[in-house]
């Protein structure tokens, strides 16, 4: 019995020692984990400190290792400084989140604004130059138009008197701006009162138009002129006047006249007849008059006759 009691006591003691050993091992594990966490915190703190030192060196040009705090100025109140610091921190927190890209965005916006401002100035300068050029063009065009209008007016009166064997005619500008004003034709055939061209007969209007046409032609003569049935509304007497006009200017211009009038055909140097012998097929027939007729007709006048 004594041996059993001794064995039981030793067994209980061994169990207690095992339990104590387990407790110690558990405590050792906790201490190891804590030590590992402390080591991580130390490494992190060292990295933060290195970044802070590097920022002080790059942004503030200060060596943290050689830095020593300056003595407090005379009359420095630590409590007041602490309150001021807390107030500044409160205002900083009141600003909310700080946009770290604000300066970069501001730089881009400013660059864009500068570009657009420069473009606007260039456009305004170009606009001013264009307006100046337009003004010069308007002045030059107005001067040239006025001079040309006066010359056309002079030739128109002379030719009108020639075609109508008397009378008078003039061109009137209606409006203040010569470049935008309307032009009214006022004519007075021989033996009639001065009147608008709209009140004249068809033949008179045709002769007036021919006078205006040749008045413009005389300002800047052309070596070639095509007239398409301008003599259609004219009677025989007016056709003779029209032909005299052609002969007058035939020494400087070659005229091609499309006509159905026989008198105009007789006055031509060369005659081209256009006929349609078959449906849809036109045929051209030319006739050149002999020398006797050439002496009578205008030497440089061509006439075309259209017939079915």
TrEMBL record:
Record Pfam families: SMC_N
Compartment(s) of residence: Cytoplasm
Signal peptide: none
Cell wall biogenesis/degradation recorded as keyword: no
GO cellular component: cytoplasm
Ranges of residues in domain RecF/RecN/SMC N-terminal: 88-282
Keyword terms of this UniProt record: ATP-binding, Coiled coil, Cytoplasm, DNA-binding, Nucleotide-binding
Keyword Protein transport: no
Any one GO MF annotation of this record: DNA binding
Domain of life: Bacteria
Major site of localization recorded for this protein: cytoplasm
Official protein name in the record: RecF/RecN/SMC N-terminal domain-containing protein
Source organism per UniProt: Eiseniibacteriota bacterium
